[in-house]
Amino acid sequence: MTLETIIGLEIHVELDTKTKIFCNCSTKFGKKPNENTCPICLGLPGTLPVMNERVIELAVKAGLAINCNINTLNKMDRKNYFYPDLPKAYQISQYDLPICQDGYVDIETEQGSKRIRINRIHMEEDAGKLVHDEFEPVSYIDYNRVGVPLIEIVTEPDIRSIDEAIIFLKTLKNILEYADISDCKMEEGSLRCDANISMRKVGDTKLNTRVELKNINSFKELEKALLKEQKRQSELYKYGEDYKIIQETRRWDSAKGKTIPMRGKEEAHDYRYFPEPDIIPLIVKNEILENAKASLPELPSIKKERFIKDYALTETDASIIVADKYLANYFEDIVKEGADAKNASNWILRDVIRILNEQKIEAKDFNLPAKELATIIKLTKENKINSSSATLVFDEILKTNKTALEIIEEKSLLQSNDSSEIEAIVDKVIFENENVVKQYKEGNKKVLGFLVGQIMKATKGKVNPKIANEILSKKLN
Ligand SMILES: [Zn+2]
After folding, report:
1. How far apart are alpha carbons 4 and 7 in whole angstroms?
2. First to last CA, the chain
3. How many Cα atoms occupy the beta-carbon half-sphere of 445 within 13 Å?
4. 289 CA from centroid of ligand 1 (Å)
5. For residue 20, how far is its CA from the centre of ligand 1 (angstroms)?
6. Bridge pairing between strands 69-70 and 139-142
7. How far is the CA of 296 from the centre of ligand 1 (A)?
8. DSSP state at residue 350
9. How many Å lie between the centroid of ligand 1 and the Cα of residue 80?
10. Ligand 1: distance of its center to the CA of 262 in Å?
């Protein structure tokens, strides 16, 4: 029996706002527990939520970025459940009329481009965080995250493999970063993912019982959790025990390397959704829609096509550079400073990425000014410095913050391109190496390299080897 895997993802994205969704508390990460709280987000009786307009703007922008229809009339609902990290015992979310619906994201797989449909995007408030004491049977509650604005992006079950799930999430993260929707820091919980996974016989069209894997916060964990659950389910199918697969929510335990049942999956009616009476239905004003459209930057897929067309980059090179918004901007800055595009891309793919790996930093923290790298590229192209000097200058700028020209001057790295000067040195080397010259004239062409080496040595590597070679060959023939 050949099985296929069906995956749908629900991605929670913390929006990049300064204040919470219904109050003026800060959303800043890393504050002392319960520092960012007030009566509204603590859900004290008598308080009323006030919708943060910035949340609507960002949700609309996210919707446009992933090709959704915007519901200009939408509303907030109460989703009832009791959790200790949600003091009101209900979450304000959106149920039957979310802000965005029916979008899509195209992903690049090894089999080509594939469209993953987006069912909806809804806005909601985040819950708090439980901190369990390691030594005492005590749990603490940190409400700082309560009321931080979220959007939840829900895909259709269009994903057919774990690889596709990873590619989709990377592509989506990239789009959200470009559009400045969120900082997308998975390690801080700004981007988290729930995965629904089920299996079926290849050729079947109906969807079988699915299992939901909760709160996955890295690509690696997503891959591991899906692999494990895929294996668990396919074995049950293999032995005819698929009745044991029930609709439930399982938690991924990274340390134990397995999924653990948390609770039966609630259906919508279990939550007893009803319209939030404290917030009137939301109308997305034309002005917000127009502003969101205008503020949407060039998105990664469009940028990639442009890099290939305008700068003649290969598909692979363009993909790597565009996969990071900061690298893509850096690349264009270098080109704007006058470096040629092919060399700029080579420098990024080789040396910039080398430094990012060595120093374990992200592209946004790479601090060699584009202007200086452009200078290095231009001088190399004009044969003013050779390629090993170029790398030396690059590394020195990072260490010393000096300019390229200062370092070249200090270390006298400028190559001589002056033919008459080089000619005099060539003559001297020919004169001093009579025997080698004789061998060359007798047909041993390999000794030419030795003579060029002598020229480089005599000038401490500062002549242009290409010109030296040309002059030498001319004189010997
Ligand atoms: Zn508050």
Report:
1. 10
2. 75
3. 3
4. 27
5. 7
6. unpaired
7. 29
8. I
9. 20
10. 30
In terms of Cα–Cα distance, which of 379, 304, 302, 310 is closest to 347?
379
- CB-CB contact of 234 with 207 (8 Å): no
Q: What are 297-305's contacts with CB under 8 Å, separation 24+?
A: 297/178, 297/179, 297/180, 298/178, 299/65, 299/175, 299/178, 299/179, 300/171, 300/174, 300/175, 300/178, 300/325, 300/328, 301/106, 303/178, 303/328
Gap between the Cα atoms of 193 and 199, Å rounded = 20
Q: Is the pLDDT of residue 466 over 70?
A: yes
- Taking the centre of ligand 1 as the mean of its atom positions, its distance from the CA of residue 72, in whole angstroms, is 27
Task: Provide the residue type at 78 as one letter.
Answer: R
- pLDDT beyond 80 at 157: yes
pLDDT, the chain, mean:
90
Categorize the per-residue pLDDT at 268 as very low, low, confident or very high, splitting at 50, 70 and 90.
Answer: low
Cα-to-centroid distance, 41 and ligand 1 (Å): 4
Q: Is residue 66 over pLDDT 90?
A: yes
- The model's pTM is 0.84
* Three-class DSSP category at 303: helix
The answer to whether 348 and 354 are in contact (CB under 8 A) is: no
Q: Which of 126-130, 264-268, 284-288, 393-397 shows the lowest per-residue confidence on average (mean pLDDT)?
A: 264-268
Rounded distance from Cα 140 to ligand 1 centre (Å): 19
* Cα 31 to averaged position of ligand 1 atoms, centre (Å): 14
pLDDT digits (tens, 9 = 90+) for 210-250: 899 987 889 999 999 999 999 999 988 888 888 888 888 88
CA 24 to centroid of ligand 1, rounded, Å: 6
Rounded to the nearest angstrom, the distance between the alpha carbon of 147 and the centre of ligand 1 is 7
Least Cα distance to 373 among 355, 394, 359, 345 occurs for 394
Ligand 1 mean position, distance from CA 43 (Å): 9
CA of 93 from ligand 1 middle (Å) equals 17
Distances (CA, A) of 165 to 5, 7, 9, 11: 11, 7, 8, 12
Q: What is the pLDDT of residues 431-460, one digit of tens each?
A: 888 888 888 888 888 888 888 888 888 777
Q: What is the CA radius of gyration of the chain?
A: 31
CA distances from 298 to 179, 184, 191, 327 (A): 8, 18, 22, 14
1 pLDDT more than 90: no
**463 vs 137 pLDDT, higher one:** 137
Beta strand 73-74 with 258-264 is unpaired
Q: What is the pLDDT of residues 110-150, one digit of tens each?
A: 899 999 999 999 999 999 988 888 888 999 999 999 999 99
Taking the centre of ligand 1 as the mean of its atom positions, its distance from the CA of residue 283, in whole angstroms, is 24
